[in-house]
Request: fold
Amino acid sequence: MNFLEAVMRTALVTAVAGAAVAFLLGLLTFGVQATVHPHDVPLAVVAPQPIAQRVQAADSPEVDLRVVGADEARTLLADKEVYGVLEITPGQATVRLNPAVNPSGTQVAQQVLTGVAQGAGLPVKVEAPAVSAAERTAPLAASALLWIGGMIAGVLFVVLKGGRFRLVSSLAAAVLTAGSVSGLLTWWGVGLNGAAVAFLFAVAGAFALLQAGLFKHLGIRAMGVLGVLYLTAPAVAGQVPELLNPVYRAVLWSWTPFRFSTEGLRTLLYDGSIGTGWWVFAGIAVAGLVLALAGDEAQPDRADRVVDVGVDEADGLPRAERQHTA
Reply:
């Protein structure tokens, strides 16, 4: 192979690799947002029978309108089983929203339910606690920052070759990152209660342990996994499942830990309770701890592709060279 052929082959391989990576990231990030469309968004309606029948007739594939009693509607909204409630009384329609529900879901709920009320010729009043821009941003932002904190600490640990202290460093990074994120959210004006702060530390610890385990076994190559997860998961976690394309919902949303951290923190900010979220991050922490304690360190890559084989104490020669001269 002459020099020109080698150059052309290298150029072709790098061009194809760049295009493939761009396509994959576009598919997994911007593709999520580009294909957003409501599918069976659950909403509750409380209305007298004649109006209830008209509401049910207006049902569509985009929304799932449930006609229920007033008490059941409030319970469904509190449990986040529906994204909004429309209560129709003589001469008035009230749209009720829950701030603990994903803002994308409440936005769709308000638009649809307001349209239903206006179609019935009724004035609409919206009842929802005020939510600041910081409170809408905080759950997803905190999840991403906690992931980045552990990831950067893991990268530096690989570069500095501090394998013996990996667990201590990871846990220290988790504590400091969770503390800094808590401070940042407080500065933004987000009111953190004790449960929300504890959850931040639990998520940070789980992320850091998982990343430590992957860095131990893969070395710097773990960035190929952790970096892609960081780029793709937040795009999915910021949406509600009923707005996602079914493929993205099944392939990405169904398992990404970012959705559990985002939704869990949003719920805890408004004094709600979560069960699954705690168990998810406990499981991630245990899996990361097992990875971090099991097996040997990944062999570090060297620029000259030479493996350090050590020195034979008998004659001072490298073992590989001694075997060659024997």
